[in-house]
Amino acid sequence: MIQLRYATIDDAEALAGVESASFPPAEACSLENFKKRLAVFADCFIVLEEDGNICGLIDGMVTDQQTITDDLYEDASLHNPNGAWQSVFGLAVLPQKRHRGYASLLMMEMIEKARNENRRGLILTCKEELIAFYEQFGFMNKGLSASVHGGAAWYDMVLDFEHQPASGF
Question: Which end of the chain is more exposed for a tag (fewer CB within 10 A), N or C?
Answer without folding.
Answer: N
